[in-house]
Specification:
By secondary structure, the chain is of the alpha+beta class. Helix 1 packs antiparallel against helix 3, helix 2 runs antiparallel to helix 4 and helix 4 runs antiparallel to helix 5. It is elongated. The N and C termini lie far apart (about 80 Å). It catalyses: 2 GTP = 3',3'-c-di-GMP + 2 diphosphate. It holds the Pfam family GGDEF.
């Protein structure tokens, strides 16, 4: 069954326009730069559909086809620009305007008289490149990859592959060959574009909401300065981990860290330097911990780490590693490099012996002993939490 091409073009224009309007409305509550670029991409794509519909009805409008092609390339490039904006990347204007202008202008200079398919290789090449670039940006975002990142990456990569095959068939067979018309002609391409528009529009809006929800969750569960867990989320997860430890018949250990002379750092160098120290220490300690371990900023210059399944000896080894890592942190100040140190209190328990609150109290007592013992060292909780291995007794 043959579909009316003019009708397809007009339907495409209406669907594209509605998608652009959807983004503009969605931006009112969420002024995300990516949504602005993607909304522009859909609005750019309205005019080509109208131009192609007019050219199908009146041959004199064929001369406008290259302009429509340039707008299609611009729309595809804006998908890429929007995907980059979602990852907080800036894109030079020339990177997306230049190819669109070339796709629109070169046919007027190189192909006279203009015909229906004038400039098609430039159109197809632009769509192939920019759709694939947009797909790669979604597949490898800055930050966590959301479900709708994957949907958009697959959809745009699929569109890129379709236009690549279309370009190859155009060169191999020519636009008048029945094989080209059946698989890659204007009807097939318009249907493909319609599907991409529908999938993309809903997935783009859904992605924006996914990212917003993730940001809210991040704000609710993470410390804003260091990016590690905040105290309330650490407590919630640690209490659950300790309950689960009983089912796994395993123990656990806790490290309580307090940066040495942190008040002096703030008073001498200012709070901005103090913040750099906190962030640097948090990053260094995080690298010392395993995937199951929980780590938080417990308050001020204090940090806490729960080590599920850790014995006192294992906790001691981890503490030694943390001490070395913190000594390796360096923050530049007007007075020169600053190298912080930390003191660590360790408590460890078997399944039946101790809950989180008691574990924290034992670690706090051990931390106090580490401070009295000269700082930049770790101390175990003594009886009831097992002593540290000998390698740390004089750390």
């Amino acid at each position: 069954m043959s579909l009316d091409l003019t009708t397809l073009y007009l339907v495409s224009a209406m669907v594209t326009g509605m998608s652009g309007l959807l983004f503009l409305l969605d931006m009112r509550g969420r002024p995300d730069p990516a949504l602005r670029w993607w909304g522009l991409a859909f609005l750019f794509a309205i005019t080509p559909a109208v131009i192609y519909a007019l050219a199908g009805q009146a041959p004199e409008f064929v001369v406008l086809n290259p302009i429509g092609n340039g707008l299609v390339v611009a729309g595809s490039s804006l998908l890429w620009v929007g995907a980059r904006a979602f990852s907080h990347k800036r894109t030079p204007v020339v990177a997306w305007v230049g190819p669109a202008v070339l796709a629109a202008a070169l046919p007027f200079a190189l192909e006279q008289p203009l015909v229906t398919w004038s400039g098609f290789p430039l159109l197809a090449g632009g769509v192939v490149v920019f759709n694939m670039l947009a797909a790669l940006e979604c597949w490898r975002p800055v930050g966590p990859r959301m479900r709708n990142h994957v949907v958009l990456a697959v959809a745009w990569a699929g569109g890129s592959v379709f236009y690549l095959f279309r370009l190859v068939a155009f060169v191999a067979f020519g636009p008048d060959d029945p094989r080209f018309a059946l698989a890659f002609g204007s009807e097939a391409a318009t249907i493909c574009v319609l599907l991409l528009i529908v999938i993309s529009s809903f997935s783009m809006v859904a992605l924006g909401k996914e990212v917003s929800e993730a940001a809210l969750k991040q704000a609710a569960t993470r410390d804003g300065l260091t990016g590690v867990l905040n105290r309330s989320e650490f407590t919630r997860l640690a209490e659950r981990e300790i309950r689960d430890a009983g089912e796994r018949d395993e123990g656990y250990a806790l490290l309580l860290l307090d940066l040495d002379h942190f008040k002096r750092i703030n008073d001498t160098h200012g709070h901005a330097i103090g913040d750099e120290v906190l962030a640097g220490v948090a990053t260094a300690v995080s690298r010392c911990l395993g995937p199951r371990d929980l780590f938080c900023r417990y308050g001020g210059e204090e940090f806490a780490a729960l080590l599920p399944g850790a014995t006192p000896d294992v906790a001691g080894v981890v503490a030694e590693r943390v001490l070395r890592a913190v000594r390796g942190v360096m923050v530049w100040t007007p007075a020169g490099p600053l190298r912080p140190t930390t003191s660590i209190g360790i408590s460890a328990a078997n399944v039946e012996s101790i809950d989180l609150g008691a574990l924290m109290r034992v670690a706090d007592i051990a931390l106090y002993r580490a401070k009295r013992g000269g700082r930049d060292r770790a101390e175990g909780g003594g009886e009831g939490a097992e002593a540290l291995p000998k390698t740390l007794q004089n750390a």
